[in-house]
Write a structure and sequence with these properties.
- The protein contains 8 helices and no strands.
- The chain has helices at about 5-25, 35-65, 70-95, 105-135, 135-165, 170-195, 200-225, 230-250.
């Protein structure tokens, strides 16, 4: 295996494992305080909406057609975003929630849906990290750092709801780890199969679908879940903090 390929796999792994850093926040939450749920869900909503509006949708719009005509590009981007919203709604409707009789009703479902969305988000990121790193290692390192910074709050958005709904720290950590390791899955797919076939149109549709899933989760699950036991002021404050963290990671990227 050439050194550039090995380095690309290492960088993908480092970007993915950073989700666990966020998940370790649960070890400072011995009493399962609902305030931490409010903070983490509001923060995660800010992260997801910011990623969608400043990264995924603009990239989708720019890549979806070679035509300079903005109108069909916009329509196609919105169509794929709506497909993502519908997928998220179907997951939300049919996902069984074995913990719904607990005090923190619905948090388990929020954690699982967040994990699914983040896995779908991380696989293309893993592909991008691998392809970038094999061609330009310096740029690959910068990309890895930026991805790692926004994977930390993504780990929080999975681990805290899972922990609060189940009381199981190991399960919360493992779910966060699973979402992070999907970065490595993306790299493996790129190495074995996809690199010659991935084109801008496929990536553009994926980006818009993922954005739709993330926006739906944020508006329909995360923000209402955060507001349930808190005030609007607190939700907005930590939503804005999550947004600012993501904007700073884009500056590094």
């Amino acid at each position: 295996m050439p050194n550039s390929t090995l380095y690309a796999f290492i960088l993908s792994f480092l970007a993915g494992i950073s989700t666990v850093i966020g998940a370790f926040l649960i070890f400072f939450d011995k009493n399962r305080n609902n305030k931490l749920v409010t903070i983490s869900l509001s923060f995660a909503a800010g992260v997801m909406i910011c990623v969608s509006l400043t990264d995924l949708l603009p990239n989708s719009f720019n890549m979806i057609l070679s035509s300079n005509n903005s109108f069909p590009k916009l329509i196609l981007t919105l169509i794929f975003m709506v497909i993502g919203i519908i997928i998220s709604m179907l997951i939300d409707k049919y996902l069984p929630s074995e913990y719904e009789n607990k005090d923190n009703k619905g948090l388990y479902k929020i954690g699982i849906i967040s994990m699914v969305a983040i896995i779908l988000h991380n696989i293309p990121e893993g592909i991008a990290t691998f392809i970038t790193s094999t061609n330009n290692l310096s740029l690959g390192i910068t990309l890895t750092l930026a991805i790692a910074l926004h994977n930390i709050p993504e780990g929080i958005s999975i681990a805290v709801p899972i922990y609060h709904s189940t009381g199981n720290k190991l399960k919360a950590i493992m779910y966060a780890l699973l979402s992070g390791m999907s970065e490595v899955v993306g790299s493996i797919l790129a190495y074995l199969f996809l690199a010659p076939f991935i084109n801008d149109h496929i990536m553009a549709s994926l980006y818009a679908i993922i954005a739709g899933i993330m926006i739906h989760i944020s508006v329909y699950e995360l923000i209402p879940g955060a507001y349930k036991d808190s005030t609007l002021k607190t939700v907005i404050k930590f939503f804005l903090i999550g947004t600012i963290v993501m904007l700073l990671s884009h500056v590094l990227m």
